[in-house]
Amino acid sequence: MTLGQGKIWYDGKFVDWNNATTHVLSHVIHYGSSVFESMRCYKTKKGSAIFRVADHVDRLFDSAKIYRMPLPFSPDELCQAILETVRVNKLEECYVRPFAFRGYGNMGVNPLSNPVHVAIAAWDWGKYLGDEALEKGASAKVSSWNKSAPNTIPSLAKAGGNYLNAQLAKMEAVQEGFDEAIVLDVFGYVCEGSAENIFIVRNGVIFTPPTSASILAGMTRHCVFVIAKDLSIRIEQHLLPREALYIADEIFFSGTAAEITPVTAVDKIPIGDGKRGPITTQIQKHFFGIVQGEIEDTHAWLTYI
Ligand code: PPE
Prior knowledge:
This protein has about 300 residues and is of the alpha+beta class.
């Protein structure tokens, strides 16, 4: 990952990387008051293209709305600023992080009078779960931490504070030698990875938890539904008990950072034959085919920069 180079868009202007700073008493630092997005820009034969930029920006506005955080830019202005950030930094392929946060003003939990800042950074970010995971699969552990219960910390908002729970799950998993955590909800049903949605395959059908199961409504998750439909693979949303993981034929994660990553063992139990399965391979191939411009982008997911 290359951090530390180029320009960051900060409240409407480009500033040098090292000048994109904020006061230590900014509300966000003390109370986690930020919302963010992430998206990838892929290099295709027709040039670099950002994946689902407008949909990601819409989700940023949804997250901000949940937290009563008025964003001082329109969705279209932010989409243009995202494209411009990639252009200005002359990045052919990168990860883009637009975010908004409550800045310096008052101390105390009430954020309503603190200013809202918006920034966009872009950098090169390779394979999230390691170079080999896309082919060989990742190992996962069911976390001892649960996701926040409904009506506590809203999962459908992609807010900075959500990632305290994610950090606990991720640290536990990596310190015990696993690549990733799988987190259950307070009732014991499967939610998602620390930063990925999860799918299981059994008898040729793909299953994933519904958006009411304390998960983020992932953009890549939505792509999996569309791709499965295009490939005539049945896909259903169900509450999944923990043991559904162990007896799955295949499991995979989806996410902007993780893309489509097979999970080949959970709690050291091999999933299926312990290798990337055929349905995961099909979904993965189709996904990478579209983002790399090799399969026709019939759903208009790519915006060329
Ligand atoms: N669930 C969570 C909790 C999550 O953070 C992500 C994305 C997803 C599901 C998948 O959503 P989508 O990217 O829209 O398909 N996590 C982002 C942040 C990762 C990070 O380490 O930072 C990402 O994948 O970019």
